[in-house]
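Fold Annotation — chain and its backbone
Encoding — discrete vocabulary of local shapes
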Amino acid sequence: MDHRDVIRSQYQAALEMLRQAIATCPDALWDDPADKVAFWRIAYHALFFTHLYLQPTEKDFVAWAKHRKDYELMGPPPWAPDQIPQIGAPYTQDEVLEYLDVCRQQADARTSQLDLDGPSGFEWLPFGKLELQFYTIRHIQQHTGELMERLGSRAGIDLNWVGQAPA
């Protein structure tokens, strides 16, 4: 068994659950002003950092063509706590789903190339590449769970568990 195949499968499963949440989100919840952080921003944040951490290093990262400055942040950045991100028009569901497809492609392409014994590639993450994969998948799931809770409690929408990469 190749551990990279297992990692790829779990990325795809986590991203499929996030896809379900994004695709089923009603318009009223997508950018609800009552939310501290809008639904779309949480989804975009999860995807941005998935995309980033699938790269070998920060220097290898090329942002998505439609990326907007600071849209990946859900509040002030830790390195500049007095800076409030200036967020304008929201991404549409179709745009966020498009970015999710980019991340799915990256997960397929990058996991086969992982040096699981190497460093994370990100100076602020003081662990190895293998742990970075668990860290990133947990990050996707944490935010997907957040979004699923909103969908369930506020719109009565239940989503399916995905245990491994969709066939």
Notes: The radius of gyration is 16 Å.
